[in-house]
Amino acid sequence: MIVVRHLDGHPAYLSEAAVAVFEAERLRERNELAWDAARVRWLSLAAAVHAPEARAVRIAGRPPSEAAVAAARTLYTGAAERVAREAKRAKRWDSVAKIRDEQSAVLYADAGSPVPPPDELVALYRDGRSAVLRSLAAVTSYAELVAAGCCRPCREDDGKAFRIATELREPRLPHAGCPRGLCGCDWWMTVGVEEPVRKRRAASARTAPRGHAADGEQTPEAGPPTPPSPPT
Fold first, then answer.
1. How many CB atoms lie within 10 A of CB 144?
2. Range 127-131 contact pairs with CB under 8 angstroms and sequence separation of 24 or more
3. For residue 142, what are the β-bridge partners?
4. Rounded to two decimals, what is the model's pTM?
5. Residue 28 class from Cβ within 10 Å (0-12 exposed, 13-18 middle, 19+ buried)?
6. Tens-digit pLDDT profile for residues 98-110
7. In the chain, count of helices (H) and strands (E)?
């Protein structure tokens, strides 16, 4: 029996026994192309976080394989951790946020974007969001949540201001149940918010002058006490 396969657009006529060899070789070629592309991508990410160049050159010189891809990935993650720690010690919060945002996004995609996301990726994501909040804390006590609008929890918090100290202790991002897993919400600077509106109104009501409502509207003045009626 002669089996026809195609190679680079041309027919290949194979004996039945040669088909298995042909298919195995084609699979190897496809795998090597995928491994080489993945290795190049991880090495490019590693170079952006100043990974040791000598190690990158050695990994790039290996034949394409799953092991070479894993080595390039490890080179990137190790370098990203080192640079993020150095930026934290120097309180360069913008740099920390940039590194963690890219790191969590890349590793999340590499994991297949599961929902809910793994705890270790949530921790990386939150480290990036916390860095943004710490940067904003230098000029304000509150931050405005700007939502990606991808789900109801994200939309409900959109445009609201939250106390930064509270968000650092109990982070709300990523929103639980967000279909994107690591949602695209962000923190922006809010100027002029010192305390929640409800607290301001309560304080205003306590300190309002007698005869005036807390919202500034006039109320009837309290007159002198009515004398008791004379006994009959």
1. 19
2. 127/84, 127/96, 127/100, 128/96, 128/97, 128/98, 128/99, 128/100, 128/101, 128/103, 128/104, 129/97, 129/171, 129/173, 129/186, 129/187, 130/168, 130/171, 131/88, 131/93, 131/94, 131/96, 131/97, 131/100
3. 163
4. 0.73
5. exposed
6. 999 999 999 999 9
7. 8, 5
